[in-house]
Amino acid sequence: MxxxxxxxxxxxxxxxxxxxxxxxxxxxxxxVASNAADNGDYATEAGATIQTSEDGYxxxxxxxxxxxxxxxxxxxxxxxxxELNLYGELGKxxxxxxxxxxxxxxxxVSDNFNVFGGYAYKRSELDINDNGVxxxxxxxxxxLSFGIxxxxxxxxxxxxxxxxxxxxxxxxQYYATNGDYHTNEHEVVLSAEMDNWRPYVSYTYLxxxxxxxxxxxxxxxxxIVTLGVAYQF
Length: 233
Description:
Layout: H1 10-18, E1 24-33, H2 35-38, E2 44-51, E3 56-63, E4 68-77, E5 82-93, E6 96-110, E7 113-126, E8 132-146, E9 149-160, E10 166-170, E11 173-177, E12 182-192, E13 197-207, E14 212-213, E15 221-232
Antiparallel strand pairs: 1-2, 1-15, 2-3, 3-4, 4-5, 5-6, 6-7, 7-8, 8-9, 9-12, 10-11, 11-14, 12-13, 13-15
């Protein structure tokens, strides 16, 4: 995941919902299963969500594979049940960078259940040339809580405009594209609130269509399992 850069960043959305409850939340997570892990690359990721105002927050994240990202988000309370979140992010990995702009609308059905949907635009570029890959993301999901237990689901469909070839960064891998691609990602996160601690486990199913992974696999599916813990100050 990479969580922030796929924003859907799923963990970013999850952390931003808790940022209102505490000024700072830090997290540490470990990828324990994925195609990257099968090739010996077990990504360890850390980051923080810092509340800058009642409705604004900053996200910062990095991992041991050379990825770094920072973003800013703001929540607009349109009514008692409807919220609009706007989020922007810049990411950098060892051979390139990307920029993301996202808008998500959340409808709070009840105190413990909500549904959401949104759109994101992403541009990815390599350091060695100025080829930029433009892509669209369509996001939908829901969040359900049972006392201290929360269950979150996020679906993200990503597709490019087919204008240029290049490299995109998804999850904890980078992929080469001839310019026209689409991906489908399903992520489920199970977490528990324990005082200021929040342990969680996430499972992500990623279908990468005709993309070529950094391990030269074409159109592979990825099953990603991540264990993590967050702490609120």
